[in-house]
TrEMBL record:
Keyword Transcription regulation tagged: no
Domain J: 62-134
NCBIfam families the record matches: hscB
PANTHER family per UniProt: IRON-SULFUR CLUSTER CO-CHAPERONE PROTEIN HSCB (PTHR14021)
Organism, as annotated: Toxocara canis (Canine roundworm)
UniProt keyword annotations, A-Z: Chaperone
GO molecular function, one term: protein-folding chaperone binding
Cited SUPFAM superfamilies: Chaperone J-domain, HSC20 (HSCB), C-terminal oligomerisation domain
GO biological process: [2Fe-2S] cluster assembly; protein complex oligomerization
Domain of life: Eukaryota
Family annotation (InterPro entries): DnaJ_domain, HscB, HscB_C_sf, HscB_oligo_C, J_dom_sf
Name listed for the protein in its UniProt record: Iron-sulfur cluster co-chaperone protein HscB, mitochondrial
Length: 224
């Protein structure tokens, strides 16, 4: 058995089955390993060929599937982190420094995809935007809310933020912003799960404004 195969087997033994398996409802035909050309059972190992241990290319799957969690706005960030670290330990490019050029390229692509998936799903705004994308409803970063009342509130909040000088005042406003973001997250979850996609999209547009406002206030405090 090769050193790579031994390493993969050791890691696999420590990795939960839910991360080593990908249950696909539409999996009817086995795929072939790019290296040894043996048939792969897509209901079993999804990262490495069980025959030759070669790392396998990305499939057409979403971030939730790749990190082994159910597609939902409610995700356990601690579970996401645990899954991320487990997968990273298996597919990081450093693990393939002595492997073939193709294996290195696949590892780099998989690792990049994994990082993007993790950072997207751990942040509420990006997670909400991604869920809308999966539903075929992308969001425009420059899109504004349709409510005239909210547009007026946006201008007033921006003016208030510009006028603040003391750290205490900025921290107080940051607390109010966090409270509004929490409310909008709850609204998005309810609307999205109820199939009210337009309302969910509106909540994301409002969340985007508050995220920007929070970032601007943090800059005033010296945070990037």
């Amino acid at each position: 058995m090769s050193m790579l195969a031994q390493r993969v087997n050791r890691i696999s033994a420590r990795t939960p089955l839910r991360l080593l398996s990908k249950i696909k409802e539409d999996c009817t035909m086995p795929q072939d390993c790019w290296k040894c050309e043996k048939a792969l059972d897509c209901l079993k190992e999804k990262f490495f060929c069980p025959a030759c241990s070669a790392i396998q290319p990305l499939e057409n799957e979403n971030f939730f599937d790749y990190l082994g969690v159910r597609p939902s706005f409610d995700v356990d960030v601690s579970v996401l982190k645990k899954h991320f670290l487990e997968l990273q330990s298996r597919i990081h490019p450093d693990k393939f420094s002595r492997c073939s050029k193709k294996e290195k390229e696949i590892s780099e692509l998989c690792s990049s995809y994994l990082n993007d998936a993790y950072h997207t799903l751990t942040e509420p705004l990006r997670r909400a935007q991604y869920l809308l994308k999966l539903r075929g409803e992308g969001t425009n970063p420059e899109e504004t809310a349709s409510s005239g009342e909210f547009l007026v509130e946006m201008m007033e909040l921006n003016e208030e933020a510009d006028s603040l000088d003391s750290q205490a005042e900025i921290n107080e406003m940051l607390k109010r912003i966090d409270d509004r973001i929490d409310i909008l997250c709850a609204q998005f979850k309810e609307d999205f799960e109820s199939g009210r996609t337009s309302a969910a999209k509106e909540a994301v547009v409002k969340m985007t404004f508050f995220y920007r406002l929070r970032a601007n206030l943090n800059k005033k405090l010296g945070f990037s």
